[in-house]
Design brief:
Layout (H helix, E strand, L loop, with lengths): L2 H11 L3 E2 L11 H10 L11 E7 L2 E8 L1 E3 L4 E2 L6 E2 L5 H13 L25 H6 L7 H7 L11 H9 L16 H15 L3 H13 L5 E2 L14 E4 L2 E4 L12 E3 L1 H13 L5 H7 L18 E5 L2 E10 L2 E8 L4 E7 L6 H12 L22 H7 L1 E5 L5 E7 L2 E4 L4 E5 L4 E4 L2 E6 L8 E4 L4 E6 L14 E5 L4 E8 L2 E5 L6 E7 L2 E4 L3 E8 L2 E8 L6 E5 L5
Antiparallel strand pairs: 1-3, 2-3, 2-14, 4-5, 6-10, 7-10, 8-9, 11-12, 12-13, 13-14, 15-16, 15-22, 16-17, 17-18, 18-19, 19-20, 20-21, 21-22, 23-24, 23-30, 24-25, 25-26, 26-27, 27-28, 28-29, 29-30
Helix pairs in contact: 2-11, 3-7, 3-8, 6-7
Length: 555
């Protein structure tokens, strides 16, 4: 081992900070610290990126440690003081900034957003700041819009002006405001713009003055200048052929993302919900109360905060993912416990790590952890005949989102995304640990399925197998006014191919009548006038019914 590697190893060895407590918090035992370390053991070395973890209770940091490398090119190890881009964990800070302005009487959360951002079009429905906070506005998502318009993430530089420009060109919403919860980063960029216009200060300046400095978050800022040098900033990576590849986002957009911080500072932030150093008790209550949809159902989302149950106890948290950065924070108010995890590689699952850490600290105080059937020695086998019944095309009842299910090597797979489904029994499966339930009579071809990960009720669609000769009618050039780009549809070897602007060509697979899907673009549903194909509507995960018009020359 050379001298640099020895220094790195030494730094990793001393990367933990353990603080014993006052005020009711109890120091972790050596066994607990060892068990927390074991969660991150596979990242603890000098040849790969890793994670940092912080555990706090009662306003005291119980444990902070880092595992792996911050910068592989220069041999710099991660430490608890390493500064991470924490992506969507940023959202609760933007929401809190707007709430502080409401507390000051400078605005109301029930203001029409167009009062502060008049560039936005009128959709015939009032969209409030509260709708933006709760992801219930129906405004299409900025990242999906920019991708559809040919912007290449994470290579191209995105700014607030770019977001405002493309969002203000949209002529339709995904849904009537308040009808659904659908995650939209656009809303939080608009909240950041609102802070700047109402306060006269950038979100960075306002947050520094009103949140970060009062809480002692000295290594935290809203990163609104992509070229700014930040001492202690981590690099980020993703696994690729031949080893790790650099994967760092390139944008100046903020509000939805771009908070730079440490795990220790995130513990201070989470404790503020109890200490209320910043914000009133009324603000805190509002921030932690779920949105209620127009149908009276809760969205389980507050002010940039997911509201959930973890092994029988209430949990408030949020995750984040941008390029190679991953982060998760979670707070358990009943136990006065806060956990923060930040990682610098794309394959990390910090939400899993944070809950594993919480399970160690709260052992004996939580409901038993669920045990997967396979782990319990009860591996579930679904017969080939039953898998055949489950395969097919499923479409969301309220939009054009489609899942194509097929059976491969005894496993049910979401074919258009290449995602395997884990069986619980022959009617219930999981995807990324979230439930999927097939509906209809037992032991029969299902009528649909309920997919928790999408929040969607889906219906099984009749098979659509267009004849090769009929595919030519879809070929042509298509223009979108809202995106200001042209897409081309071609025919190759009896398969339709979509050619998005500045993106990779994608084969289109038949889904249902006049509709085709690809794993990247989403669902392309062709539209007709008097029987002639005149355009299509493009639906992705967070952008629905984007209109394209077929060139008259191609009709």
């Amino acid at each position: 081992m050379n001298a640099q590697r020895l220094l790195c190893a030494a730094a990793l060895a001393v990367g933990a900070t353990t603080v014993t407590t006052t005020a009711g918090a109890q120091a972790l035992t050596p066994v607990q610290r060892t068990r927390i370390d074991s969660v991150f053991a596979s990242f603890d070395g000098t040849t790969r990126p890793g994670c940092a973890v912080g555990v706090g209770q009662g306003g005291v940091s119980l444990y902070e440690r880092a595992y792996g490398m911050s910068d592989l090119q220069h041999g710099v190890p991660l430490s608890p003081q390493s500064i991470f881009h924490v992506a969507s964990v940023s959202k609760q800070f933007a929401a809190f900034a707007v709430a502080l302005l409401a507390q000051d009487g400078k605005l109301s959360l029930d203001d029409d957003v167009r009062k502060h951002i008049p560039e936005l079009p009128s959709y015939g429905h009032t969209i409030t700041l509260r709708h933006l906070i709760y992801h219930t506005s129906g405004i299409r998502d900025q990242w999906e819009l920019l991708g559809m318009a040919g912007w290449r993430y994470p290579v191209d530089l995105f700014t607030q002006d770019d977001v405002l420009d493309i969002v203000s060109r949209q002529k339709e919403l995904n849904f009537t405001p308040g009808d659904e919860y659908l995650y939209s980063n656009s809303g939080y960029s608009l909240l950041a713009m609102t802070v700047q216009r109402v306060s006269g200060k950038s979100l960075r300046e306002f947050s520094d003055e009103r949140i970060f400095k009062p809480l002692g978050m000295v290594r935290t800022h809203v990163h609104d200048d992509h070229a700014m040098i930040v001492p202690g900033r981590t690099s980020a990576y993703e696994a690729g052929p031949g080893g790790w590849k650099i994967s760092i986002p390139s944008f100046d957009t903020h509000g939805a993302t771009s908070l730079f911080t440490t795990v220790g500072d995130l513990l201070k932030w989470q404790h503020n919900f109890e200490a209320m150093t910043v914000g009133t008790s009324a603000l805190m209550k509002d921030a932690l109360t779920s949105a209620v949809l127009n149908n009276g159902k809760p969205a389980n989302y507050g002010f940039g905060i997911s509201i959930e149950k973890f092994r029988g106890t209430e949990a408030f948290g949020h995750g984040g993912a941008d390029a190679g950065y991953r982060a998760d924070i979670v707070r358990f108010p009943q136990h006065h416990l806060e956990v923060a995890v930040a990682c610098n590689f794309a394959e990390a699952t910090p939400n899993v790590y944070s809950r594993a850490v919480a399970g160690v600290v709260l052992e004996g105080k939580l409901d038993p952890a669920p045990v997967a059937a396979a782990v319990a020695g009860k591996a579930v086998a679904v017969s080939a005949s039953r898998l055949a019944q489950l395969t097919g095309t499923y479409k969301a009842r309220t939009n054009d989102q489609v899942l194509l299910l097929s059976a491969k090597e005894g496993t049910l797979v979401i074919d258009n995304y290449g995602i395997p489904m884990q069986p619980v029994d022959d009617r219930h499966f999981t995807v990324f640990a979230t439930p999927v339930e097939f509906t209809g009579e037992a032991n029969a071809i299902p009528t649909g399925m309920e997919v928790a990960a999408l929040g969607a009720s889906m219906v099984r669609m009749p098979a659509f197998s267009p004849r090769a000769a009929g595919l030519a009618q879809y070929v042509g050039e298509y223009w979108s006014d809202e995106l200001r780009v042209s897409y081309r549809v071609s025919l190759k070897d009896s398969t339709l191919v979509l050619h998005p602007f500045k993106q990779s060509s994608q084969p289109l697979r038949p889904a249902f009548a006049d509709a085709f899907v690809s794993g990247q673009a989403g669902t392309v549903r062709f539209t007709r006038t008097k029987g002639v194909v005149t355009g299509f509507r493009l639906t992705g995960g967070r952008t629905r019914n984007m209109a394209f018009v077929k060139s008259r020359a191609a009709r």
